[in-house]
């Protein structure tokens, strides 16, 4: 499988998840509209990089579609901070996913984790969802939750969500590589998954995702 990472941030989730050899081997391209940490990480990992110098909007989406088509990309994984538009959404329906640091539909937008904390919710978490025309409105593929323990430093709670996102990236790449992700009447479904009460729903079933950890740097 050929995966394109699209990012305009530090690329930390992509960089840490790429410690898993299976994940690193699937990534064919890292794309941004500017120089950023994700491109620096890609160069260290030996992944090809492309800058599409369009300030978001339809121009960037059209250029990304052309690039993905030319490169034979099977899955586009977004850590991009702007909306996608136009024919790209139809061409990659079900194969364009976004990572967001809140339990959607709560706290969409650029500061999902911060908005979660400010709202005083009892849970923190993350979502991987299909991209549609809205801001973080697409159907969830996998979500993760954890108690928002006020006794823990904020940095530790943020790290918990970061690790959730890393584990989710490993898992969803495995699901797509195994051909288990399907669009249905409800938007998206993963074959042969379990919905037992757990941190991740659907439950993790990829050994590399289950075993993944990134110790808190403090």
UniProtKB/TrEMBL annotation:
<keyword id="KW-0808">Transferase</keyword>
<dbReference type="Pfam" id="PF00551">
    <property type="entry name" value="Formyl_trans_N"/>
</dbReference>
<protein>
    <recommendedName>
        <fullName>phosphoribosylglycinamide formyltransferase 1</fullName>
        <ecNumber>2.1.2.2</ecNumber>
    </recommendedName>
</protein>
<dbReference type="InterPro" id="IPR036477">
    <property type="entry name" value="Formyl_transf_N_sf"/>
</dbReference>
<comment type="pathway">
    <text>Purine metabolism; IMP biosynthesis via de novo pathway; N(2)-formyl-N(1)-(5-phospho-D-ribosyl)glycinamide from N(1)-(5-phospho-D-ribosyl)glycinamide (10-formyl THF route): step 1/1.</text>
</comment>
<dbReference type="GO" id="GO:0004644">
    <property type="term" value="F:phosphoribosylglycinamide formyltransferase activity"/>
</dbReference>
<keyword id="KW-0658">Purine biosynthesis</keyword>
<feature type="domain" description="Formyl transferase N-terminal">
    <location>
        <begin position="26"/>
        <end position="171"/>
    </location>
</feature>
<dbReference type="InterPro" id="IPR002376">
    <property type="entry name" value="Formyl_transf_N"/>
</dbReference>
């Amino acid at each position: 499988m050929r995966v394109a990472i699209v990012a305009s941030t530090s690329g930390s989730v992509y960089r840490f998840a790429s410690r898993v050899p299976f994940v690193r081997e699937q990534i064919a391209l890292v794309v941004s509209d500017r120089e950023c940490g994700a491109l620096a990480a890609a160069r260290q990992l030996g992944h090809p990089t492309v800058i599409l110098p369009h300030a978001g909007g339809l121009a960037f989406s059209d250029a990304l579609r052309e690039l993905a088509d030319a490169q034979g990309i099977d899955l586009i994984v977004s850590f991009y901070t702007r909306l996608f538009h136009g024919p790209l959404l139809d061409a990659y329906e079900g194969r364009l996913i976004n990572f967001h640091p809140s339990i959607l539909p709560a706290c969409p937008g650029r500061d999902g984790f911060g908005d979660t904390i400010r709202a005083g919710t009892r849970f923190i978490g993350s979502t991987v969802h299909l991209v549609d025309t809205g801001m973080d409105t697409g159907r969830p593929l996998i979500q993760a939750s954890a108690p928002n323990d006020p006794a823990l430093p904020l940095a530790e709670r943020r790290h918990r969500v970061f690790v959730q996102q890393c584990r989710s990236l490993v898992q969803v790449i495995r699901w797509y590589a195994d051909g288990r992700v399907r669009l249905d009447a409800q938007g998206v479904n993963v074959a042969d998954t379990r919905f037992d009460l757990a941190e991740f729903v659907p439950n993790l079933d990829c050994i590399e995702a289950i075993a993944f950890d990134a110790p808190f740097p403090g």
